[in-house]
Amino acid sequence: MSEVNIQLFRAINDLGKVYPQYNPAMFFIAEYLVLLLALATIGYWCTRKQSNRMMVLCGGLSFVVAEIIAKIAGMIHFNQQPFAELSNVNQLVFKPIDNSFPSDHTIIFFSFCITFWLFKRGWGVLWVLLASIVGISRIWVGVHYPADVFAGMIISLFSAVLVYYFFPRLKMAQKILTIYEKGEQAALTPFIKGKKSKSKDM
Q1: Beta-carbon neighbour count of residue 116 at 10 Å?
Q2: Chain segment 148-169, per-residue pLDDT in tens
Q3: Torsion angle in degrees (nearest 10) through CA of 174, 180, 182, 183
Q4: Are 59 and 41 in contact (CB under 8 A)?
Q5: What is the rounded distance in angstroms from the CA atom of residue 37 to the CA atom of residue 50?
Q6: 12: closest CA among 144, 110, 104?
């Protein structure tokens, strides 16, 4: 384990001892902010805008590609969580001991958040900032080294850019959206007609 990696981990993780009042917020960010990402992804999809739906598809595919690369990286390098290897760790999250390289939470967030930024630009950078905060929180709560988070970020950046530049240009991608939207329209038509007939009766 690199001494720099350990020192940087200590610098961030020890903040939880110096500023314990922030521990509950960091615990929430590290464990539950993924729910916000899930709701945002569903929200983008439910706008029914084709650009947003393509963005969500790219985010999902980017995550799949990143996870495949991460599994390969995990076979090449292995380290347990900091709380299992180091003493006096500010551990706020309890989980089974396994390979923490690279960080799965970081991969989830960066895969989607970088994709959101690539499609939205401008204010979309806030998604990348959010993903960065999640990465830092995973170090703060004691379950990942900085190298775990950095590797997850690099893998996700590569997969998100790769998918963004290639997937939307494929005819298959457009066909997937077209087929889905036709099925959605067919499913919603009886419901819409029912609402219209009720409004006329009133």
Answers
A1: 28
A2: 999 999 999 999 999 999 999 8
A3: 160
A4: yes
A5: 19
A6: 144
Quote the pTM value.
Answer: 0.86
Read off the tokens for 35: 């729910």
Going by C-alpha positions, the residue among 2, 111, 1, 11 that lies closest to residue 58 is: 111
The parent domain of residue 37 ranges over 3-196
Q: Which residue has the tokens 């899930």?
A: 38
Confidence of residue 174 (pLDDT cuts 50, 70, 90): confident
The answer to whether position 201 is within a domain reads no
SS3 at position 94: coil
CATH number at residue 168: 1.20.144
In a domain, 202, yes or no: no
Q: What is the pLDDT of residues 34-91, one digit of tens each?
A: 999 999 999 999 988 989 999 999 999 999 999 999 999 999 999 999 999 999 999 9
CA separation for the pair 82, 79 (Å, rounded): 8
- Calpha distance 144→30 (Å, rounded): 11
The CA-atom distances, in angstroms, between 100 and each of 35, 64, 95, 129 are: 21, 18, 11, 22
